[in-house]
């Protein structure tokens, strides 16, 4: 359970709770994770209803949202609705929005023209992690020196290609079924067919099915982007969609693009015995990563492996293999556009990013014009039309809006939209959303890179500091013989604000969340450095990172601001000198709501409140 407190502190009472005489005001922003607020009688418009010594729980009702009267020139919106919320697209973003909508009491439908789970589950993050799990084990078993350091002797490791492919496919099927069953169990209507916007608050799906809703979310995702001049045959010239089926393991494969997708597939293919050639348009590999992390990652993930690369070049033409001839790749200089080289390889993987899937959505019916295929939205994911005004009751989340093309970002945006349509304003901080590349070792990041942070500091007039720690100093990493890696934090020394954290090393993708949550909650370094981490664990890499940061002495620490009194001595445990049990209001009235006292507030607030409710 978790408590989220509003920015105003608890005030004195207006309702009596139980027979103890203790009183408190109802905090309208109190949330119980996993439990509906309505179950505890908390809502923005209703106080606790009391009958003698018992709490009367209010009946669950759908949140009433008023429909817009704007027609946008396509007819008046309907006066009554089939659903509170319709979601077009049942990927990870749509699924997250649907589940949160049901939790909020909205009658919800989700439309899917392909299969539930979208790209992530069927052709992206999920099956790729299955392949990467195989590559990680193969890489470890093939490293004779590594195994001998543990005193282990392992014979030559091999693999069954079809068995590996089946593992990826079975995982995707399992997760897809889980998502489908979770929505059905909660009462989400899953409608089959291609969905499009017919007009204000009106959607068409399938051939001629028309339904209405108070609010509509577009969550149609993206597809692999294939540059002009590249001919994809699905066999020798492939995208990530094809590669995840692992129909073959070529001896030599060129990977066009060295971002997340390209790096992960290079890890898979080299572990399974392929030679890899990267083709990158920019002057350095791994663009988008922090430069220092990229440099180290290249030394570990690329240089020792069967990988070579061409940077600063475009692949202007790629011809699939046929009639016994290899795949031909024509390269030109990215700046001068002069011919540079021609490669002959067994296969080519196009990993040049993804393009939004927004064609055929009926956006013209609400006067929306895409920008490079992306649907324009504001910070609250509200769709903006061709005149620069908001389209009432229409939202777009995930890859289709281009803000941050990550599955968990889409889900977070969907949840944010549901919060808004049910009466609670919410703006998602995209700088707090982490990202990860699941190579061996992994790379993860959140917030700004060092160059980005320094540019921001110059514009806004503050200093930027950087601190780093090594996995070589971590006991758990050394026990695993995985000491290669660093963690790096960019921060403001004047106030302790965390601007960015980047990790390269064992389980980096799991470690990043402490930093991302700190950014999301506004926790400063001077507070989080006091947190305790279990020993020996990899989490101590971040612990050392926070402790190594030098924050100026005048920067305030907020942990000490909490006026809460923890019941740790015998007098408090028995209720004080007079033997009376402290009231709820006395426990809660002085809780500071500042972010840095968040965990202390949770501990005492939950214990005090729940003991009064259920006893």
TrEMBL record:
One of the GO BP terms on file: 2-oxoglutarate metabolic process
Annotated spans, Disordered: 558-587
Record's keyword terms, sorted: Chloroplast, Disulfide bond, FAD, Flavoprotein, NAD, Oxidoreductase, Plastid, Redox-active center, Transit peptide
Origin: domain of life: Eukaryota
One Gene Ontology cellular component annotation held by this UniProt entry: oxoglutarate dehydrogenase complex
Cofactor note: Binds 1 FAD per subunit.
Places the protein is found: Plastid, Chloroplast stroma
Domain (Pyridine nucleotide-disulphide oxidoreductase dimerisation): residue spans on this chain: 433-544
Required cofactor names: FAD
E.C. number: 1.8.1.4
Catalyzed reactions per annotation: N(6)-[(R)-dihydrolipoyl]-L-lysyl-[protein] + NAD(+) = N(6)-[(R)-lipoyl]-L-lysyl-[protein] + NADH + H(+)
Main location: plastid
Keyword Cytoplasm recorded: no
Residue ranges constituting the FAD/NAD(P)-binding domain according to the UniProt record: 83-414
Extent of Basic and acidic residues compositional bias: 571-587
GO molecular function: dihydrolipoyl dehydrogenase (NADH) activity; flavin adenine dinucleotide binding
Physiological role: Lipoamide dehydrogenase is a component of the plastidial pyruvate dehydrogenase complex (PDC).
Note: The active site is a redox-active disulfide bond.
Subunit structure, interactors included: Homodimer. Part of the plastidial pyruvate dehydrogenase complex (PDC) containing multiple copies of three enzymatic components: pyruvate dehydrogenase (E1), dihydrolipoamide acetyltransferase (E2) and lipoamide dehydrogenase (E3).
Record-stated family: Belongs to the class-I pyridine nucleotide-disulfide oxidoreductase family.
Protein name: Dihydrolipoyl dehydrogenase
Protein species of origin: Arabidopsis lyrata subsp. lyrata (Lyre-leaved rock-cress)
């Amino acid at each position: 359970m978790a408590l989220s407190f509003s920015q105003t502190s608890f005030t004195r009472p207006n309702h009596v709770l139980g027979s103890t005489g203790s009183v408190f005001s109802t905090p309208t922003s109190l949330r119980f994770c996993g439990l509906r607020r309505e179950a505890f009688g908390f809502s923005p418009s209703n106080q606790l209803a009391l009958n003698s010594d018992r709490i009367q729980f209010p009946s669950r009702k759908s949140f009433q949202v008023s429909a817009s009267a704007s027609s946008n020139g396509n007819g008046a919106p309907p006066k009554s609705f089939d659903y509170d919320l319709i979601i077009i697209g049942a990927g990870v973003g749509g699924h997250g929005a649907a589940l949160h909508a049901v939790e909020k009491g909205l009658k919800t439908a989700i439309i899917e023209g392909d299969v539930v789970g979208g790209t992530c589950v069927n052709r992206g993050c999920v099956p790729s992690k299955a392949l990467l799990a195989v590559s990680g084990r193969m890489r470890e078993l093939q490293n004779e020196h590594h195994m001998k350091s543990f005193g282990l002797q392992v014979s030559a490791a091999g693999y069954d290609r079809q068995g590996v492919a089946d593992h990826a496919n079975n995982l995707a099927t399992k997760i897809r079924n889980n998502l489908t069953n979770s929505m059905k169990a909660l009462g989400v209507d899953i409608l089959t067919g291609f969905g499009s916007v017919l007009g204000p608050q009106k959607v068409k799906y399938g051939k001629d099915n028309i339904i209405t809703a108070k609010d509509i979310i577009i969550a149609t995702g993206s597809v692999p982007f294939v540059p002009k001049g590249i001919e994809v045959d699905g066999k020798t010239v492939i995208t990530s969609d094809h590669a995840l089926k692992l129909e073959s393991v070529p001896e030599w494969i060129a990977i066009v693009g060295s971002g997340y997708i390209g790096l992960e597939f290079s890890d898979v293919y080299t572990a399974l015995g392929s030679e890899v050639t990267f083709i990158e348009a920019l002057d350095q590999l791994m663009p988008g990563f922090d430069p220092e992390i990229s440099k180290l990652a290249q030394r570990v993930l690329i240089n020792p492996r069967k990988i070579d690369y061409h940077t600063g070049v475009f692949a202007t033409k790629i011809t699939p293999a046929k009639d016994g001839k290899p795949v031909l790749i024509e390269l030109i200089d990215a700046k001068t556009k002069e011919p540079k080289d021609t490669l002959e390889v067994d296969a080519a993987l196009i990993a040049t990013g993804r393009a939004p899937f927004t064609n055929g959505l009926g956006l013209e019916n609400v006067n929306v014009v895409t920008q490079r295929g992306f649907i324009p939205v504001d910070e609250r994911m509200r769709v903006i039309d061709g005149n620069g005004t908001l389209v009432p009751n229409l939202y777009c989340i995930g890859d289709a809006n281009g803000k941050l093309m990550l599955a968990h970002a889409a889900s977070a945006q969907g949840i944010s939209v549901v919060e808004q349509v049910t009466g609670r304003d919410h703006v998602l901080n995209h700088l707090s959303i982490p990202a990860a590349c699941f190579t061996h070792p992994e790379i993860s990041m959140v917030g700004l890179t060092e160059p980005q942070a320094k540019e921001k500091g110059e514009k806004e007039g503050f200093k930027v500091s950087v601190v780093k720690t090594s996995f070589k100093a971590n006991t758990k990493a050394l026990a695993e013989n995985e000491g290669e890696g660093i963690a790096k934090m960019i921060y403001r020394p004047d106030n302790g604000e965390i601007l960015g954290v980047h990790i390269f090393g064992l389980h980096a993708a799991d470690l990043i969340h402490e930093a991302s949550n700190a950014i999301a909650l506004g926790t400063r370094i001077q507070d989080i450095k006091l947190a305790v981490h279990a020993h020996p664990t990899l989490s101590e890499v971040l612990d050392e990172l926070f402790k190594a940061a030098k924050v100026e002495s005048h920067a305030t620490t907020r942990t000490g601001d909490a006026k809460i009194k923890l019941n740790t001595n015998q007098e408090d445990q028995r209720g004080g000198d007079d033997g009376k049990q402290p009231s709820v209001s006395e426990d809660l009235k002085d809780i500071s709501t500042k972010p840095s006292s968040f965990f202390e507030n949770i501990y005492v607030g939950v214990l005090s409140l729940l003991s009064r409710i259920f006893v």
